[in-house]
Design a protein that fits this description.
- The protein is 0% helix and 34% strand.
- By secondary structure, the chain is mainly β.
- It folds into two domains: 89 residues, no CATH class; 78 residues, no CATH class.
- Strands 2, 3, 4, 5, 6 and 7 form a six-stranded antiparallel sheet that branches. A five-stranded mixed beta barrel has the order 8-10-9-11-12.
- The protein starts with 12 loop residues before the first strand and ends in a 13-residue tail after the last strand.
- The mean pLDDT is 96.
Length: 201
């Protein structure tokens, strides 16, 4: 029996950098437009748009992320206090004259751990042959209780060049059966990450 059991998706969790590079867990602060009306959860993919702010990247078979969202900092409109939290609540009200900043893991070489589903939030797995293939994202709504994303990876992999995620390895510690791995290690595909995309925003 696998330990621990993977019971639900949790978004993309940064774990290290590809190729044995030193991983410091560094992030970049990126602005969210005041009044942006979509929740962004810890582990969601985000993308820059033409006004310089970021939004949740809701792509599945195509996505152009700049990185993964790891929290938010803003000045609360009611208390006037700086607030840091796990997720950005849609249409957050902030103090006049202040800005909202997301914390983003934006290094194109970052590797992420992510759960595999058969569709929506049902945990399944992939085999060893999935390593090196590309995969589709499953965009589930995150939890306003925990602040965590529920984005996952679809268990159907392919060599399709436009798919946004590359599987680098499987997580052997949580294998649910022989050659069934409910978690994998991935990176954002080279041409899909906004820092590697030749066309820019």
């Amino acid at each position: 029996m696998a330990y621990p059991i993977v019971s639900a998706p949790y978004g993309l969790k940064p774990i290290n950098l590809i190729g044995g590079q030193v991983f410091s867990g560094s992030t970049r602060q990126m602005e969210i437009a005041s009044g942006y009306a979509t929740n962004i959860f810890y582990g969601d993919l985000v993308k820059r748009i033409s006004d310089g702010t970021i939004q949740k990247d809701t792509g599945t078979t195509t996505a152009t992320p700049v990185g993964v969202f790891l929290g938010v900092i803003f000045t609360n409109a009611s208390t006037g206090q700086i607030q840091q939290q796990q997720y950005y609540p849609a249409s957050t009200s902030i103090k006049s004259g202040t800005k909202i900043f997301a914390v983003v893991a934006d290094d194109p070489d970052t590797l992420f751990q992510v759960a595999v589903v058969s569709g929506t939030t049902v945990i399944t797995g992939v085999g060893i042959t999935s390593i090196g293939e590309n995969a589709t994202l499953v965009q589930n709504a995150g939890s306003t209780t925990t602040g965590d994303s529920k984005v996952a990876l679809l268990d159907s992999t392919a060599t399709t060049a436009t798919l946004p995620i590359r599987i680098i390895d499987v997580v052997r510690d949580t294998a649910s059966a022989a050659d069934v791995f409910p978690e994998v290690i991935v990176k954002i595909n080279f041409g899909m990450h906004q820092y590697n995309n030749a066309t820019g925003v």
